[in-house]
Amino acid sequence: MVGLFDRYDSETAANVTHREELLDKMEVAISDYLIKISDHEVTESEGRAVSELLKFTTEYERIGDYTVNLMECAQQLHDQELAFSSLARQESALLFGAVERVQALSNAAFFNADLSQAEKVEPLEETVDRMCEIVREKHIGRLKAGECSIESGIVFLDLLTNAERVSDHCSNVAARIVGMEADDLDAHARKAGLLAGQDAAFNAGLAAAKSKYLAPLGIAGA
To answer: CA-to-CA distance for 77 and 88, rounded, in angstroms?
Structure first.
């Protein structure tokens, strides 16, 4: 899908839309099934598992929504014959690389029930958030300086928002896997603990992610 920003293809765009529609139908069917299970007598741990599976289903459905939004950004560029500046293209390529890595790790964590992969997500997600924050500021500066058009600039800001949302929901998937393993579903408290700087593995992962994704933007210390 990311390739649509380099070379738009209507067949690929239609396939993204079709898959998202399938995702919506699957989310309804899976949720209905899980709710039916919860209507029967289940143990406390089984009830928690059903609840978490419902939340996983919602997370993936929302990732689909934001993916379609990204496709529509690419379509808008194509239909209106717009183009990003060279700096915006470099920034978006770097951002998409980070988001794709977040997706790959969270998917591997979910499908393989792999805690080690899940624990690698949060440092990257924090880096994606920081990338979006700083790139957004830099882009607004370019808009004010007249270095890119208003029309393409708005599309670029939409791209940042939707890419960040994809990363957020992938992070939620990974956080739920970590929480289920630790029997601690308070993801916000765990995240706050990581950001306090007391977790060596998180700190190392964050430093590596900053070096890879922020340094090329000239913001390694951000």
So the answer is: 13
Per-state percent for the chain, helix, strand, coil, to nearest 5: 85, 0, 15
Q: What is the pLDDT of residues 189-207, one digit of tens each?
A: 666 666 655 678 888 999 9
| Distance from the Cα of residue 100 to its chain's centroid | 8
As a whole number of angstroms, the distance between CA 137 and CA 153 comes to: 12
pTM for the predicted model, two decimal places: 0.90
From 180, 181, 159, select the one nearest 96 (Cα to Cα). Answer: 159
How far apart CA 136 and CA 132 sit, in angstroms, is: 6
Mean pLDDT of the chain: 89
Q: Are 61 and 167 in contact (CB under 8 A)?
A: no
Q: Are 70 and 58 in contact (CB under 8 A)?
A: no
- Residue 79's pLDDT is 95
> How many C-beta atoms lie closer than 10 Å to residue 25's C-beta?
9
- Mean pLDDT for 37-41 is 84
Residue 25, both tokens: 């139908």
CB atoms within 10 A of CB 199: 17
Let me know the angle formed at the C-alpha of 168 by 3 and 214, rounded to the nearest 5 degrees: 65
For tokens 């929302």, name the residue.
Answer: 62
